[in-house]
Amino acid sequence: MSFADRFVLWLHIGFAIFTIGPVTVAIMSTPRYIRQRNLVILRYLYRVTRLFAILSLGVLIAGLILARLKHDFSKPWLTVSMTLFVVSLVLLVLILRDQHRAIAALEDAQAPAVEAAVAAPEAETAVQAGAEPAAGAGEGSGPAQLPGGPGAAAAAPGHVERGRIVSLGGVTSLIWLVILVLMVWNG
Q: Poorest-confidence range of 106-115, 138-147, 157-166?
């Protein structure tokens, strides 16, 4: 094996270790913070997932260069590995979409709370002046606030995205595990 072959192999392994690990951790951590409604950490995990998903293309590129240098394109395990990696990249795009949707849903859910906090002093001032409070001011125990009530879907923003992120993240991790087994077994 020449120096160029070894260099590309180490580059391929380095990209695999330092990109696939962090993106997997970011994906698997996302549902917890959706459930906790922590927008700061969710935005961070979204950026990490996006960055390392793009950097993980280096695994594919270094693998293609290595296969070309070693004239291995005719081997079926390599074709299966490359195909599975492309499928995992498509799943990463879907995960990124769901992370973005969950962030948007949480931002939309927090917007009425911010508006209510701003409207509360105005309603208090109106009550002190003898005027009727604005419609919706002071309400908080309506059916939309009860678990299982008509507004239950609005009470749990990001629920659908959380489930998809978990399932797609699990499938993506399983695909990467299969690729790893194929690389170690046949490499």
A: 138-147
**Rounded Cα–Cα distance for residues 88 and 176 (Å):** 8
Helix (H, G, I), strand (E, B) or coil at 130: coil
**CB crowding 146-183: b at 16 or more within 10 Å, else e:** eeeeeeeeeebbbbebbebbbebbeebbebbeebeebb
| Inside any domain, residue 72 | yes
Token pair 């290595």 is at which residue?
Answer: 66
Predicted confidence (pLDDT) per residue in 131-158, tens digit:
555 444 444 444 444 344 444 444 466 7
Sign for the CA dihedral angle at 54, 21, 45, 88 comes to positive
Residue 55 has pLDDT above 90, yes or no: yes
Residue 136 in any domain: the answer is no
| pTM exceeds 0.85, yes or no | no
Alpha-carbon distance 15 to 57, whole Å? 9
Q: What is the tally of helices (H) and strands (E) in the chain?
A: 7, 0
> What does the pLDDT read at residue 71?
87
**Domain for residue 59, yes or no?**
yes
**What's the domain count of the chain?**
1
What's the rounded Cα separation, in Å, for the pair 46 and 3? 37
Crossing angle of the two packed helices 76-128 and 39-55, in degrees rounded to 10: 160
pLDDT at 122: 62
Domain that holds residue 63: 3-127+149-186
